[in-house]
Amino acid sequence: MPELHVIGAGSLKAKHKYMQKLFERAPGLIGRHFQYSKIDPDMLSRDIKTALQYLIDAGILHRVYCTQASGLPLNGLVNEKKFKIIFLDIGLAKSSSYLDPRLMLSEDLMLLNQGALVEQFVGQELLAMSPPYLPGELYYWERSKKSSQAEIDYVINIDDTIIPIEVKAGKTGSLRALQFFLKEKKLKFGIRLSLQPLEFRHNVLSIPLYMIDQLPRLAREIIQEITR
Hints:
The protein is α/β, with parallel strands linked by helices. It has one domain (9-226). The protein is 34% helix and 24% strand. It has helices spanning 9-25, 45-57, 90-96, 101-106, 116-128, 176-185, 215-226, and strands spanning 61-67, 78-87, 138-145, 148-152, 154-158, 161-167, 190-194, 199-201, 204-208. It has a five-stranded mixed sheet with strand order 5-6-7-9-8. Strands 2-1-3-4 form a four-stranded mixed sheet. Strand 6 (161-167), helix 6 and strand 7 (190-194) form a beta-alpha-beta unit. Helix 1 packs across helix 2. The longest helix is centred in the first third of the chain and has 17 residues, at 9-25. The radius of gyration is 19 Å and the shape is globular. It starts with 8 loop residues before the first helix and ends with a helix. Residues 1-9 have low confidence and may be disordered.
């Protein structure tokens, strides 16, 4: 008979402790570079890493990998040691942060957690756009040189076109990083997701957050227009 491996109660309890700690800390890490030491300085990185993989395998958390975005496929140019995380959905992100429901009604949801919930919302919507027969993957881009730091919240591809996406919680905000990315990668246009109305101006397609499900269609229309 095959040998049965039984996991002891102590081992299960220890694993649960790490996953619980990570689950509680994750809302404050949305949109930030993931560092194991930020979870709990008294816990070993390897234990946090294992807990993270369990939550990812369960579909509760997703990694957003840093990519060079110099060509396709985007996953061929990733730095696997550099990533961010988002939740399965915004409901889990809110409930695990223990926010008072009254606060959710009285405050601007877009600005809570310094706008992290907006980045969470956009990430889960982009995952939902992935074909059901493929694993959902998310990417971002950054330039970390001291002389010129820049970061793009998400980088996607529509067919064979790479498109940078900037997420803005408010109605205003600089698009310096987006313009820098377009110039460096020699791309035709980028996308801003915010509360701004729908428009295409200065190589930036502004899409209001409530229209995010129309992003692929709108992007393809711009691609057709600028490639004529």
